[in-house]
């Protein structure tokens, strides 16, 4: 596994990293385990909260510096990268405020005696993370688990190593002891070896279905608790009473933010007969007015994709869709720029027998569908092996909520594209994975819920 920063705008190799050795892995496990033993009974929570507070301050003070590192690693727009750094800082604020409440023992009401559940650290967490939000993905597992008392070993995507390294150094700068977060440049086999180690008690992965299956298998064989945040093919279901002007305003963020490389980007737009033609016109206006260029230039509105490999894969998927009957309503032309740009593309007429009907297209490609009766729109939204996020767009909020309750997804947004906030639990259903990150649910995923029970004396 080669860990390299290849700037997707210039195609230049900016950094290359040596892989870690077996001795580095043992040092990470040994330091992490000593910390876990030290923290297990809740000691030093006050100190850990101070460190996370400092982490938030450092993120805010150095927002542009960290944003640039991410932009060079995987090409995202500098403004979007700065927003990501801000979001990570908000996780620090939220969890510092909530840690005592989330870690407090939970009384159990039983008339048979006295019972309560301690919420305790469980051990080292092995985290495998992707490139699309290089800081956010690490932050949303590291921050809560550090407060719980679970040290973390990180294997980040091989194409954003500079971001992973920078995040780990930042954690050290904030005052965290060695072993709190160890970033390793390692192979898939080495990830498996770490998962098998008895000092590791949790495994989390954010990534593709394929990567998730491989890592979940290692976790299952070794009986390690795991969470999987996987891909999606999110439906954006428009109701017949939707306001097309309001809808037009969210098209960009719903589909083109981060060059369309968001797990919860809306990927399938499902329109009622009465709005289908007008929606296509509006979507074309949005897609044709993007400005591709240097992601460090604040005038650029559409970033390159993260790598040549990702761009080639998307092109292959679009070609397959077309070969099986999909129509190109807009786009799918070469882009005359050196970077890994993909022209925003709108596809229609993807039928259920098209191989792309049930595949995630992870880039600036929108698939648009039409329905006549709402029940068919809902059925289309649910006709996917994935179930990550979804959007319902309509003026009658009571109806939008009724429809939301019928969607097979881990998350539904009403009259908005996807969103992620520290207090909102994030996660999927079906092949989009299991478990949650963020909020109280994410905080609790790798806690040992330890029952203490004393029956009444008879
Ligand atoms: P990926 O190939 O699965 O990679 C994600 C991470 O898993 C990387 O660190 C990768 O390392 C590692 N990995 C892959 N196979 C592995 C194996 N067999 N053993 C150990 N580690 C392994 O995913 P991707 O295609 O780069 O990322 C995009 C996907 O992530 C999309 O499907 C997207 O929807 C999903 N995603 C989901 C969420 C969510 O919260 N649900 C959030 C963001 C992204 P290497 O880089 O070294 O291969």
From TrEMBL:
PANTHER family: SUCCINATE SEMIALDEHYDE DEHYDROGENASE [NAD(P)+] SAD, SUCCINATE-SEMIALDEHYDE DEHYDROGENASE [NADP(+)]. The keyword NADP applies. The keyword Zinc does not apply. Residues 3-448 form the Aldehyde dehydrogenase domain. Gene3D superfamilies: Aldehyde Dehydrogenase, Chain A, domain 1, Aldehyde Dehydrogenase, Chain A, domain 2. This is NAD-dependent succinate-semialdehyde dehydrogenase. Belongs to the aldehyde dehydrogenase family. The active site is at 229. GO terms for molecular function: aldehyde dehydrogenase [NAD(P)+] activity; succinate-semialdehyde dehydrogenase (NAD+) activity. Pfam families: Aldedh (PF00171). Keywords: NADP, Oxidoreductase.
